[in-house]
């Protein structure tokens, strides 16, 4: 650790409730980090207003202005280069990143996904979990590699499915759980406790054999 807060660049596409949880944790001092910029690929993402209200610089890199993914990523990279950061945090960022981008940021790029990976990668996870009849759903934080929603897992929070759940009710409980999980994992990184080494995750000097498990209603339960 350097003594200064870990600098986070947060990438969003939408409402930004995970960004909000991260900003609150930074402000409360429970997460020893600072959000140095928020970048959205959508000009009207609600999270941009949250960032601005918190005094965080924002930028829009609208993917529709670029003919291809690589042009978009060059602009994204230029914006990241303009404001030095230690970690790039995907928080509801809905663009698939290329293998080149993932490789360039390897070990310094995290994502949160609303399922217990490797179950339900991709979109519509809550609908698919209900259709599959699972007893438990949840969210995962992982290092980003070239495999979409497939990078090494760090931690998961488990949310019981309740009788009568709809995709919306389940999504709301998973989202509340995400707001606990992401700042917690970012805190590990900010404290120098978490690293990606090769394909393996090192936490507190130990190789993770499986992601750290949290229960939505309680504390770390592994
Ligand atoms: C979250 O469910 C996150 O896991 C997924 O996209 C959603 C973003 O929500 N990747 P928000 O913009 O943080 O409110």
Secondary structure topology:
Elements: E1 6-12, H1 17-28, E2 33-40, H2 46-53, E3 58-60, H3 69-82, E4 87-90, H4 99-104, E5 109-113, H5 125-132, E6 136-143, E7 153-160, H6 167-190, E8 194-197, E9 200-203, E10 206-207, E11 212-215
Helix pairs in contact: 1-6
This protein binds 5-O-phosphono-beta-D-ribofuranosylamine.
5-O-phosphono-beta-D-ribofuranosylamine binds next to helix 1, strand 5 and helix 6.
Give a written overview of the molecule.
The chain is of the alpha/beta class and 222 residues long. The chain is built from six helices and eleven strands. It has a single domain, classed as Rossmann fold (3-Layer(aba) Sandwich). It has an eight-stranded mixed β-sheet, with helices on both faces. Strand 2, helix 2 (46-53) and strand 3 (58-60) form a beta-alpha-beta unit. The chain is globular. The two termini are 27 Å apart. The structure holds 5-O-phosphono-beta-D-ribofuranosylamine (GRF).
Radius of gyration, in Å, reads: 17 Å
User: Can you give the helix content as a percent range?
Assistant: 25-40%
Strand order of the largest sheet: 3-2-1-4-5-6-7-11
The tally of domains stands at 1
CATH classification class: Alpha Beta
Number of strands: 11
Count of separate DSSP helical elements: 6
Quaternary status: single chain
Given helix and strand content, the structural type is: alpha/beta
**Beta-strand residue percentage:** 25-35%
